[in-house]
Design brief:
The protein contains 3 helices and 4 strands; from the N terminus they run E-H-E-E-H-E-H. It starts with a strand and ends with a helix. Helix content is about 40%, strand content about 25%. It has one domain. It has a 4-stranded mixed beta sheet. By secondary structure, the chain is an alpha+beta fold.
């Protein structure tokens, strides 16, 4: 299975000053046949920092939007390794 990965943070975030273990981004996976998948990705630390806000939103609105994927760090190598594991399932 061949695909390319676009990472939002590589285009819009100064990765030299942003900690890779705290944040979120969108990613797009494009397969050789042209089909695409998009993921909202959060780090574990970002999730921990925002979990109460998520619960408050559920209480107020009845629902909340969670990430599609939680990773330990926002780095290309790490995200590509995670994708290798989940895309073969």
């Amino acid at each position: 299975m061949s695909y390319t990965v676009w990472l939002e943070f590589e285009k819009y975030v100064d990765t030299d000053t942003k900690a890779p273990d705290d944040g979120y981004c969108n990613i797009q996976v494009t397969f050789e046949n042209g089909s695409q998948l998009a993921y909202n990705v959060w780090t574990v630390d970002f999730y921990r920092q925002n979990i109460q806000t998520i619960f408050d939103t559920v209480t107020e609105c009845g629902c909340a939007v969670f990430p599609d994927l939680i990773v330990s760090k926002l780095e290309r190598e790490h995200i590509e390794e995670v994708l290798k594991r989940i895309l073969v399932q």
